[in-house]
Structure prediction request, 94 residues.
Amino acid sequence: MQNITSVIREFTFFVQEKYRIALDRPGSGNAKNIGSVVKIDDLINGQGPFARLGEEIFDDYWMYYLTKDMAKSVDLKGASYKNLREYKEYKRLQ
Prediction:
C-alpha cells in the first residue's frame, strides 16, 4: 500500500489568547479549569465574553474565582461571584 487516504481534510488552524475565548465558568463540572466558547466562529474570531473586557479583567476574575468547595476549604460561606454578571456587581463595574 503506497498511499493512505486521509479521512479528514480542510483543516483550519487558529490561535487566540485565552482571555479572548474564555468563558466565565469552569470547563467541566468536576475540574477546576477555565471553560472556553464552543462555537467555531467565536473561537476563530476570539469572541468570548472577556474579549471586550480585556486581559486584566479576565486575570482578576479567574485569580479570585472560587467554587463552592474552594470557598468552603478556606472557611468562607460561599464564593463572592459565580459568573461575569455577579463579578461586575461584586467589583462595582458597569
Q: What stands out?
A: The helical segments are 18-21, 40-45, 55-63, 68-73, 84-90. Residues 18-90 form one domain. The chain is about 35% helix and 10% strand.
